[in-house]
Amino acid sequence: MADTSDKDTWVKVDEYFGALLAPQDEALLGTLTANAAAGLPAIDVAPVQGKFLHLLVRIAGAKRILEIGTLGGYSTICLARAAGETGHVVTLEYNPAHAEVALANLSAAGLLGRVQVKIGKAIDNLPLVQQEMSAPFDFIFIDADKRSNPEYLEWALRLSRPGSIIVVDNVVRGGRVLEAESDNEDIQGIRRFAEMLANEPRLSSTALQTVGAKGYDGFSISLVVS
Hints:
The chain is of the alpha/beta class. It has helices at residues 7-21, 26-37, 47-60, 74-83, 96-108, 122-132, 149-158, 185-199; strands at 64-68, 88-93, 115-119, 139-142, 165-169, 203-212, 215-224. It has a seven-stranded mixed β-sheet, with helices on both faces. Helix 3 (47-60) runs parallel beside helix 4.
């Protein structure tokens, strides 16, 4: 029997289900190759996680999507494909070099027509997104600097509507979320964010731990209820 505490097993299970249920096509594989060649950190969502985001968008029937944290565009491709030809994704990326790689990857995937990449600090671009949007976002995916999660959640609430879904990645951090006295700003940002979820009457939320190719982490998911 496999050692279920062994990361090698987690990776192999991800690969097993990924091959069966979330096979990567040329655009997704090309994105990972281009990201690696450009020296981007290998922190893209795993294929099964990308498929999970894709399914959430389709289940919700989301057409207007906001992503905070583009990196090389792997998750952006998953979201944009799920939104369909009439959908639109606004994605925010702090690093201009990362954004350039993402734009090339989105072009190769044939998705530039339904994705807008905004470059710069997300906290500075979010007011511009609010000014420019024609309607609230149906789905918001937050996967950027964790210390700013509380601010990103505040903005997500401003930019959403009852029925919108908010997903936040990397909220477990290998269990370090338990470290109440940590001097790590990302850990403290996640803890403040979790407390906000618990005390926000406009949201119904939960968080799930995950293991897999990306190690031990997790995500939160919230439904805007009012």
